[in-house]
Amino acid sequence: MSTKIIHAFYTDDDVLLSAVKQVREKRYHIEEVFTPFPVHGLEKAMGIADTRLAINAFLYGIVGLCVATAMMNYIMIEDWPQDIGGKPSFSYLENMPAFVPIMFELTVFFAAHLMVITFYMRSRLWPFKKAENPDVRTTDDHFLMEVDAHGADIDEATKFLYDTGAVEIKLIDKEEH
Amino acid sequence: MYKVTSKLKIVAFALMILGAVLTAVGFWQMPGSEEEVKEMLATEAAAHGGGHGAMEDNHSSAADDHAVSGHATSSDHHSEGHATNHEDEHAEHVYHQLSNKPWAAVYVAAFFFFMIGLGTLAFHAVQKAAQAGWSPVLFRVMEGISSYILPGGIIMFVLLLLSGFHINHLFVWMEEGIDVVGHENYDAIVAGKVGYLNVPFWLFRAGAFLVGWNLYRWNIRKFGLKQDEAKDGDIAWYKKGFKHSAMFLVFFIVTESIMSWDWIMSFDPHWFSTLFGWYVFASMFVSGITTIALITIFLKSKGYLEFVNDSHIHDLAKFMFGVSIFWTYLWFSQFMLIWYSNMPEEVTYFVTRIEDYNILFFGMVAINFLFPLLILMNSDFKRVNWFVVTAGLFIILGHYLDIYVMVMPATVGESWFIGFPEIGAFLFFAGLFILYVFNTISKAPLLAKGDPYLGESKHFHY
Amino acid sequence: MAHYEASIRRPLVTGDKTYSDVTRDIVAPVEGVANKQWWIVFTIALIAFLYGLGCITYTISTGIGVWGLNKTIGWAWDITNFVWWVGIGHAGTLISAVLLLFRQKWRMAINRSAEAMTIFSVIQAGLFPIIHMGRPWLAYWVLPIPNQFGSLWVNFNSPLLWDVFAISTYLSVSLVFWWTGLLPDFAMIRDRAITPFNKKIYGILSFGWSGRAKDWQRFEEVSLVLAGLATPLVLSVHTIVSFDFATSVIPGWHTTIFPPYFVAGAIFSGFAMVNTLLIIMRKVVSLENYITIQHIELMNIVIMITGSIVGVAYITELFVAWYSGVEYEQYAFLNRATGPYWWAYWAMMTCNVFSPQFMWFKKLRTSIMFSFAISIVVNIGMWFERFVIIVTSLHRDYLPSSWTMFSPTFVDIGIFIGTIGFFFVLFLLYSRTFPVIAQAEVKSILKTSGSKYKKLRENKMTSNAAGASSGDPIAHPNE
């Protein structure tokens, strides 16, 4: 089965933003919007849920902190305690000032890298991944709105989209997989 | 225009009166003579049974540390005569500490509120010099808070004068004969510093700095008000304010460090830390910013400052969060380096604090670091007034304690406890601060309408 | 009012640029061919790099003895160069992360190159400790890995080990921060590429970036969180470098102001290096409309501020050395200023404290030639600062019979020159193959701070576009 998708092109971020609002008011379904740069307020206008990457980063940071603590506690206190600089390694807490720098570094290391990896996985970004923007101009100065035309009157929809400020409109047959 | 309500005035006066009474009680409780202290110690020993013995143990272990390190902390006058005549020595020692206690309490509270004013002034100057676009809607609140450096500064100067004239004995290095070889008070290390640590020069510095800071404060307020009256497009007063702010910051970075050495670090005249000035600065900066947030939220809750939105509070909260972490960073840098090197002339400072002030010393680090970190980390919480106020109150309390553990170990030593004079002085200066600050805020429109960045600030949305 | 900006702010993008102008201008150096100057500079840098490589090979095959180190001065040029390069590496993250948190829009034009500079200079820095090991193939011994010697672990109480963690975290986090920001810009080059080879390469580099709304939302969140993590990270790195010295009990090294003062010094030298690089680059690849005089002026102001902070720290150290009453401290500082290395001390003072004060004058800080000169002077001064701290503190031992002087050998000098060559080789290659300006981010501030849109706004014409584009002829839908 094939579905019809309308590609509406815009050349201005403010026009795009108001178009998104109008299209949603008209109850058309916006599949996707491709933009060359982050448009402030677009995700709100499209009704995209907040991303939880920051919370992920916080949790990853806690993991890093625990790893650092466990590692240094094992190596410095349990496995081979030494007396360094007149500070015998009897307890982790008493020697903690010397361990704080690496506790901090590993917290950041884990939080940053795992968050970025999560981001790459969630947004499906990795080397040799094929780009999925339908038109090359969307990385230059065009903004592309993909509207689901399934079951809608194409002519009416096209006219409406031009009215919202679209500069070009394409109708795409998309094979459903 | 904001008008100080009579309710606020009553609260402020009540705080001042209550505070003054409690402080007076503190002074009245001050032991009259060494005999009184001896009696007191005796009854205490009787009441606690073994309590006194334990305290002595504690005490002697501290003294041992000092013996190892080869230095006595400034408050320990007695380590040489430790074995002989212990009772008398101890009583004399406690007598000195207890006589210092109310004075030190007043000093800590007076400095703390003065520091809030000065920190706010520095923040205001930074905003001006950085041409920040978000903050002009808060300028009048900042000007209100920083106005406190006039009365607060005068009070600080009077306190310094009283110490200089030996009305109290907070500063050990002022003792008679400290630089006279052979005198019973002779101290070779302090004697090496008299070129810098002497009362006239010390008072002169304090006076010069206070005048300089107040001059800038007076000017920047005047320029702001004049700019409001200026014609459209005429920003001459704004430009003048910009230049003065840049110059002030240069003056401030130097004088603030020296002030911290003079007014706080010299309580422990043997001890030194190059970082100390910047550490005190972080404390004053975060207290100032927190006070801006608290007063802004208060005024907003009363229906004023309608042009201040969530995003402004959010930004203030970010500063509270960021500067709290910066403060912790400086605290850790200073502590860790001294702990790690373990050099006797430096480490005594932390030894006394860890032994005699353990809970306060580490507690205030936890309050100043963990609370802002956990409460204000989440972006959404920074927009919820209730969270910001909670974090703010912790920060204010934490930094009061920070100043407390800077001052007390050298003046009151192990005889500390938070009693009438500490609470009283805090309340008194809080009342005075509220009264003066809100009075200044009521003197001018709450919107600095002439500021060229006001448009950005009003439309500020993050 | 979404794009409002106070009218007294000067535009950050001049030359009335539109979105596609930005694309074209930034992609131009990548699509064009290198000119003669580029090849000349590249050849010189390459020769310097190869010479340095030769000196490194000589050092490793013969031993550390070929350096000028001696029994008293066990650390000299190697660690000086290490700290110098790490310091330079600080402005990148500062411009990217700290200025992002402070919403400074002027960062957009310079953050990409500054981050590149960070990565390239941290690579140079990392070389020195590894070479100094003498047996660099055993460098992995610094990692806490189980080994055949039983419970022989690395020492977590040692600031040198903290450095291992700090520098590697810094390098790797800076790298992903840089690369994540590069994805949309690589995608832009990919989508414009004509030759299949370019399309393939930039396709791989861009990780298949498509620019969906959700991707951008995540992208912005990740940037912000990375900035929030990188800001304390950048502080921690130079703090830990300063701990290498300050945890010791050597007079002149053990002082508590070291952490923030090293950080300020690092930012100071880093901004100077950014200025050096960008003043050349904006000319060579014609980006004067993006890296404007205003950008240079703002960087000069940062240089002036951090230079003054460093100056205050110098004076604080000097004063507290006297105030402390500790005779070793007093001697260490007296010796710095008046001893046999007085010239290094005063070179440092002149370059770092006095020269940035010229930036108080608007005429001077908006002069390109003068800014360039000062940026070089500052970098020389910051090299001397590390030299002064390290060598003057060591060369007067507690034991006067060990007192000595340090003189570098040709190998010391050669390796240093080699790293400068290596750095420029990397930077020059970068400037021809990478988008040197974060074009997506510049586009996002174009309406606020671009001269075209600022003029439109000031002429009371709404840049609100429903009107602006409705008059354009509309193509028919191609069904």
From TrEMBL, chain A:
It holds the Pfam family ActD. Keywords: Membrane, Transmembrane, Transmembrane helix. It comes from the Bacteria. The keyword Membrane applies. The chain crosses the membrane at residues 53-76, 96-120. The keyword Membrane applies. Coiled coil: none annotated. This is DUF3341 domain-containing protein. It comes from Nonlabens dokdonensis.
TrEMBL record, chain B:
Residues 47-89 are annotated as: Disordered. The keyword Lipid biosynthesis does not apply. Residues 54-89 have a biased composition (Basic and acidic residues). Keywords: Membrane, Transmembrane, Transmembrane helix. The chain crosses the membrane at residues 12-30, 104-126, 147-167, 199-216, 246-264, 276-299, 319-339, 359-377, 384-404, 416-438. The keyword Secreted does not apply. Coiled coil: none annotated. PANTHER family: PTHR43044, QUINOL:CYTOCHROME C OXIDOREDUCTASE QUINONE-BINDING SUBUNIT 2. This is Quinol:cytochrome C oxidoreductase. It comes from Nonlabens dokdonensis.
UniProtKB/TrEMBL annotation, chain C:
It is a multi-pass membrane protein. One of its GO terms (cellular component) is plasma membrane. It holds the Pfam family NrfD. Keywords: Cell membrane, Membrane, Transmembrane, Transmembrane helix. The chain crosses the membrane at residues 38-62, 82-102, 114-134, 160-182, 222-241, 261-280, 301-323, 343-361, 368-389, 409-430. It is found in: Cell membrane. InterPro entries: NrfD-like (IPR005614). Its main location: membrane. PANTHER family: POLYSULPHIDE REDUCTASE NRFD, PTHR43044. Belongs to the NrfD family. This is Hydrogenase. It comes from Nonlabens dokdonensis.
